[in-house]
Design goal:
It is built from nine helices and eight strands. With 276 residues, the protein is α/β, with parallel strands linked by helices. Strands 1, 2, 3, 4, 5, 6, 7 and 8 form an eight-stranded mixed sheet that branches. The structure holds S-adenosyl-L-homocysteine. The site of S-adenosyl-L-homocysteine has 23 residues, from helix 3.
């Protein structure tokens, strides 16, 4: 799906995952065109005053597009410094370093200011703390009317083959249908603005094929490690499942807007929060 850190049980696992994925332009399914499509659906336009956090940014797939397309100030957050170093290198090559600040921190305890962001972006990463928890906890960092744009593993149909369901439910119990994800957004103080499904090339051409091309050199370096061989076997299994069942599962891209609490007309100076 994307760098499966919940599967990393210790430092050896983690450093192997970093070594397999740090060379990639992205660490999960996605595409520059799809990031641009989400920007359009969010109604964002070029504006150097925009402040955006990209949470779980990896080596910068979406942060670089956001900086280039919007000229915005990007705070790129990931808990793996190796990925951030690669992002900085890439930003330098593209002349975007001035727009991107990297922060090595966990998405579980973000050092961001309340109501400071025009948008929160997170592609293929919110699952690490769970969609609902992320949607709830990150909301306070958005300005009123701010945008949440996240991609999330999503069932495309009402029913699906057992083999596929068993695999993904064991990897990510919160996997659900778009209608369920929309309901989570609505329940938590957002109004959905847009949704689309990542097309197959976002999985195959942009993520799995380049990953498969790195297997050989990864195993050449780490092949004596049983964990390394297991990581490759698990990735290969996931790729086969995707190829077989691609009509049933993908990432959905959810674009939503933070609802502002309505003002109490009788006492204009106080706000009556609509949410607990
Ligand atoms: N958004 C990038 C990376 C997706 S992979 C892309 O689309 O290519 C998921 C990313 O989340 C990885 O870079 C991983 O290091 C990061 N991550 C996982 N758990 C995290 C946590 N608790 N805090 C911060 N980052 C985390």
């Amino acid at each position: 799906m994307s760098v499966a850190l919940p599967g990393a049980k210790n430092l050896e696992d983690l450093s192997l995952l970093v070594s397999l994925h740090a060379g990639g332009d992205r660490q999960g399914p996605g595409g520059d065109a799809e990031t641009r499509r989400a920007i359009d659906l969010a109604g964002l336009n070029w504006d150097p005053a925009l402040k955006i956090a990209d949470i779980g940014c990896g080596t910068g797939a979406s942060a670089l597009v956001l900086a280039k397309v919007l000229g915005a100030q990007i705070t790129a957050i990931d808990f793996l410094p190796d990925f951030l170093a690669r992002l900085q290198e890439r930003a330098g090559v593209l002349g975007l370093s001035g727009l991107i600040e990297t922060h090595a921190q966990s998405m579980e305890s973000l050092c961001l200011t309340d109501a400071s962001l025009d948008a929160i972006w997170s592609e293929g990463a919110i699952y690490n703390i769970g969609f609902e928890r992320g949607v709830k906890e990150w909301r306070r960092f958005l300005k009123p009317g701010g945008i949440l744009a996240v991609s999330e593993l999503t069932w495309l149909t009402d029913a699906r083959p057992d083999e596929l369901e068993t695999h993904w439910v064991s990897q990510y119990p919160e996997v659900g249908k778009a209608s369920e994800k929309m309901a989570v957004l609505e329940k938590n103080g957002y109004t959905p603005l847009g949704y689309f499904v990542l097309p197959e090339q976002c999985w195959l051409d942009a993520y799995y094929r380049p990953l498969q091309q790195r297997f050989a050199s990864f195993l050449e370096t780490h092949g004596s490690s049983q964990v390394a061989r297991k990581i490759v076997a698990a990735e290969e299994h996931e790729i086969i499942l995707y190829e077989q069942y691609r009509t049933f599962v993908s990432y959905g891209f959810y674009i939503a807007k933070k609802l502002t609490p309505p003002r109490n007309r009788s006492t204009p100076s106080t706000e009556r929060p609509m949410l607990p």
